[in-house]
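Researcher: Re-running this chain for the archive, since the previous output was lost when a drive failed. Same request as before.
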Amino acid sequence: MLRYAECLAKGWGGEINRESALKWFQNAKSYNETAADASLSLFHFLMDMPGGSARSRKKEALQYLSEASSLGNHEASLILAQWILERRDGLSEYDDHEAFTLLNRTAEEAADPESMLWLASCYADGLGTKKDEDEAAIWIGRAIDEGASVQATWLERAAARGSIQAKITLVKLLEKDPTVESLSSLMRLCHELAKLGDPEFRFKYARLKLEEANEGTKLLQWDPKVSGNLKRKGAQEQRLAEVSMQMINEIEAAAAEGHADAMYFLAEAYSGGKHGLDQSDSAAVEWYARASEE
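Model: Regenerated structure tokens:
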């Protein structure tokens, strides 16, 4: 019934018949299982009609939008919240807190990344709720997890103002699409967070430093300024080896705190005799076992 109404409204398979479409949308709205979707469809139908921006038509459309939202349609709730925050006409009875409540519901229940980003903006700007940059960063992070494309600008500013969660989310964003240019920022943020004692970032920072040390060791093999100077080459190799062992110690500390990825990293390192560790099957098996238990 609802699909038939949409066909009539859009002219799929024939001519557009708005009068019949409206009748079938109304019929679909009378059934509980299609009421919410039909109300949302009526909103779009009325807004898309010639003269849809007219005040009377818009008022009727908004009634259907509100009805669809109250019946639990997440798309309707998102649209309604966006219109409230954008101060659209005909929504004077709503306030920012209502928009915040709608966004919070759609973000939690539907795991909708767009709702999460709008909710983050509410926390960032104090719209409908208390301003909280850490909470805003958390929701941006969750949106990233759901596939949202996010610019780093706000996170960088919030991180510079001291938001720990902004730094954590910025790490997540930089890890998602790493570049040579972003590597130094990623390493710096992980180092700052590692200093707070979080094993997750102790491991991340140590792994990045190990990768940097390994690349440095490779460069020594062909750099003409160094390869011909055995004393200089030996000193740099020793420095890189010391960095590697310091980072292995950091990873062991993270593993001791129960970080499974750190345990697995150590298992792989012992298995292959990597990063300055002697090859040891028994140590590898022990770390594999401990990682499996986490």
